[in-house]
Amino acid sequence: MSPARKRTVRLVVALSAAVVLASALIYTSFSAASPTVTPSQLLREAVPGRSYQLTGKVKGGSVRKEGATLYFTVQDRAGEGAVPLSYTGTVPDPFKEGREVIVTVEKQGGGFVGQRDSLITKCPSKYTVAPSKKPIY
Amino acid sequence: MALLGRLCLILALLVCAYGIVTSLYGARSGREEWRVAGRRSVYALAAVLSVAFAVLEFAFLTNDFSFNTVADTSSTTTPTFYKAAAVWSSQEGSLLLWAWLLSLWSSLVLFLTRRRLREVCAYATAILLGFGAFFVSLMVFYATPFATSSPAPTDGVGLDPLLRHPSMMIHPPMLYSGYTLCIVPLAFGMGALLARRLDADWIRATRRFALAAWLFLGVGIMLGARWSYAELGWGGYWGWDAVENASLMPWLTGTAFLHSLMIQEKRGMLKVWNVSLVLATGTLAIMGTFLVRSGILSSIHAFGGATLGVPFVVLIGVLILGSIYLVSSRREMLRSEHNLDSLISRESVFLANNLVLVGLCFVIFWGTYFPLISEALTGREASVGPPGVDRYTVPLALVLVLLSGIGPVLAWRKATLAVVRRNLTAPAALALLTLAGLVAAGVGTGKPLAIAMFCCAAFAIGGVAQEYWRGVRARRAGSGESPARALPALVRRNRRRYGGYVVHLGIAVLFIGVAASSSFQHATELSLSPGQSTKVGAYTVAYVRPTATITPKGDQAHTGSTLGLGAVLDVSRGGKHVATLTPSEGFYDSGDPSQGSVGHFIGGQAVSHVSMDSGLSRDIWSAIAPDISTPRLKRIVEVGNRTIPLVRPDEGIIAVAVLAREYMRNPPPAQFHLIVSPLVQWIWIGGSIVLFGALIAIWPAPRSTRRRVPDRARARGATELEVAREAKYAEIRELELDYRTGKLSDEDYKAIDADLKAQALALLDRLDPPENGDEPAGAERDTDREAVRVS
Fold this sequence. Notes:
The complex is a heterodimer.
Chain A: H1 3-32, E1 34-37, H2 39-45, E2 51-58, E3 64-66, E4 69-75, E5 83-88, E6 100-108, E7 111-114, E8 120-121
Parallel strand pairs in A: 1-2, 5-7
Antiparallel strand pairs in A: 2-4, 2-6, 3-4, 4-5, 6-7, 6-8
Chain B: H1 2-29, H2 32-61, H3 68-73, H4 80-85, H5 91-112, H6 118-142, H7 167-195, H8 201-231, H9 242-267, H10 271-294, H11 309-329, H12 346-378, E1 382-383, H13 385-406, H14 417-440, H15 448-479, H16 483-493, H17 495-519, E2 522-528, E3 533-536, E4 539-550, E5 563-573, E6 576-581, E7 584-587, H18 599-602, E8 606-609, E9 611-614, E10 618-625, H19 631-643, H20 649-665, E11 670-678, H21 681-698, H22 711-715, H23 719-740, H24 746-767, H25 779-790
C-alpha cells in the first residue's frame, strides 16, 4: 500500500471512530436526559419512574424535617403549581424558604421523591446587578 | 474617587481605540514607529487600569458605600481580608479584574517580543487591545464598577458568607489570569494568520504564555475544588457544574496544545491543528467568562445577571467566524512540512493524547451546553447530569493516564518494536504488581474502573521513574557525577522534558486520589444528640457536647457570622482516640429589619464551617446543621423582637447570647454529615506536583545554555533564524538524550542525527552565508559549523 493510501485509510478509520463515538454520545444524551420542568409542567405530565429536573422556588412555610428526610414544596416563580416532595441527602447551605432550587425528582406512587444529593440551591440574588440602584451619571 | 475611576475607564477606551488604529496601520504599512505606538498603548492601558483597580480596592477597604458595588458586596462587619477580596465578587469588579489582568499580561508578552515577529506582534497588539476595548466597553456602558448612589447607605449588604474562605483571595485571580493568558496565544495565532507568518516562530514566542495560562487555570481549578471540599457542606470537590466545566474546557484544549506544539516545533507538522487549538482555547476562555457572567445555564454559581449575554454572544460569534475564515483562507500555507514517520513514535502518542483531550473537552462541552442544545432541537430543556458525563469521561481519563506513561518512553520520529517492548516492560510490570497487590488485599471488589485507574497510574509512575533513572544514568556515564548532582543537572539542562514528566507524575497521583475517594468513600447523614455516636466506615464518631460563639468579631471561623453553633465530635477506631472535630454553622446578619431586632442578626444565610482530620491514608470530614427552630429558641427570638427596639442593636446581640446559652443548656438533636474519604489528600498532593513540574518547565533555561544573538546577525533582522537555529540544536541534544536513555536503536539514531545536522548546517548557511565574501566569516560561525559536524 502506498504511503498516501495508508494515510487516507488511517484518516477514514479515525474519522469513522470519532463519528461513532459522537453518535453514541448524542444518542445516549437524548435518551437518558432528564427534562427540565417547572412545578406546573411536572404536575401535568409526570410519568412514574421517569426522572425530571424540577426548578422553582421553595414555598414559604413548607419546609419540614423528619429524621433524615426533608419535606418541602416547590412552586413556580409566579407562585403556581405546588409540588410537595420528600428528599434525603445533602442540603446546600443556602437552602431556605423562598430560594430558587433545582432538584431531580421522580414520581413514586402519589407523590414525588427527590433523588439523593441532587438538591442545588441557587445563590441569593445579591450577586446579580441590583436593578433598583441606577448609576447617578 | 468614583469620578477618577470613571475617567480612567473612558481614558482606557480611548487608549484601546488609538492603539488598535496605530498597530493595524503599522502592520499594513510596515512602519516601525506606528507599531511601537501600538505597543506603548498596551503599556498605557495597563497603567490606566491599574489606577482604576486601585481606586476600587481603596473604596472597599475604606467602606465607601457610595459605590454601589461596595454597598452590595461589603459591609462594616466584613473582615478586612474579605473586604480586599470582595472587589472581584461582584460582576463589575470581576470585569475590571479581567481587563486589568489582560492588560498586564499583554504588556509583558509585547515587552518580551519587542524585537521579534514585528508584523505578527502588530496584529496581535491590535487583537489584544480589541479584547481590552470589549471589556472596558462593558464597564463603561453596561456594568460600571464606579456607579454611585446618593445618599450613601450607612452600611453594605456584606460579602456573601459562602465566599468567605481564604481561597477567595487567590482562586478568582488565578482563574482570571488563566483565562486572560489564553487570549495571548490566540492573539498571536490570529496575528500569524493575518501576517501569513505560519512557521513555528509565533508558537515559540508565546509557548511560555500558553504554559502559564495552563498553569494558572490549573491552579485556579484546584483551588476551586479545594474550596468546595473545605467550605461547602457537601463534602465533594467536583460536581460537573457548568461553571467548573467552563474552566476545565480551555485547560483541556490547552493541555492538548502544549503537547502538539512540540510536533510543530520539531517537525513542522499539525499546523492547522495547532492554530485551531489555540483559537479554540481562547474562544473557550471567553465562553467560560460568558457562561459565568450571563447566567444562561443553571449553576450553583449564580454570579451574573442576564445583562451581558448579548455582547458576549456577539464577541464569541465574531471569534468563531473569524477563526474559521482565517484558517480556511490560509490552509495552503498551513500544510505540514513532514508526514508521520511511524505509528510507534512520540508524535503518534501525542496525537492520540490530543484526540483524547479534545474528545474529553467535547463530552464536557456537550454535557454543559446540552440544556441549550436540547431546547433548540426539541423545544424542551433537558440535562444529562453528572452520570451522563461520567459515562464517557472516566474511560477517556483512563486512556489519558495510560498514554501519559507511554509517551515519555518513546522516541521522536520512530522506534523499533524491540526497543518499545524493552522500555515498556518495567512500567507494565509495576501495573501488574499493583493489580496483584490490590486483588490479594481484597481491595476494589466491584469497582473495576477504580482498579483500572490504579493500574494505569502505576504504569505512568513507572514510566516516569524509569525515564528519570535512565536520564541520570546517561548523565553519569558522560560526566561521572554522583546521582545527587546528576539529577538536578539533568533537569536543569532539559527543563521542558523533565518538568513535563513531573507533571505526568502529578496527574497520575491526582487520579489515584480521585479514583479512591470517589469509589471507596463512606458517608452518612444522621441526627445525633449529645452522648450519641455512630459508625462511619471503620470509625466511631461520638457527639460529645455542643458549642456556641456570638458576635461577628468572636466567631470561630473569623468570617463575620453573628452566631456560630457547633459540636465537639470525638472520633475513635477500635476504642482508640483518633481525632477531635469541631464543625459549626455560622448564622449571618440578614440586614433585613422586617425580621425583627433580634431575628435579623441570625436571619441571613447559614453557612457550614467544615471540620476535618486529614491524613495521607484518609480524611474524616464533618459538617453540622444545628436546629434553631425549636419552640424554646424561637420564643427567645420572638420575645426579643417584641421587646427590643431596632435602634438598640447591643440589646439585640444580648438576646442572641441568651439564645446561644439556651442552646448550650438544652441542645436539640443536630443533623450531621460525616464522610470518611480514602486518599483524598493525594488529589491536592498530585495537584502540587503538577504545579511543581509546570514551574520547572516554564522556568527560563540557565544563561549558560542560551546564546547571545550576535549584533551583526541582529542588524540583518536575523533573530528568527537564530531562534530556529537554537531550536535545531535543542532537537539534536534531545535526540542524543533519547538515544542515551535507550529509546533509539543505533541505526535509527545515526540516520536521524545525520538528517538533523544537515538541517542545522542549512540554517547556519542561511544565517551567515559562507559564499558572501563582503564580510569575513566570524570565528563563532565556524566554531558552530564545526561543532554540528563533529557532534
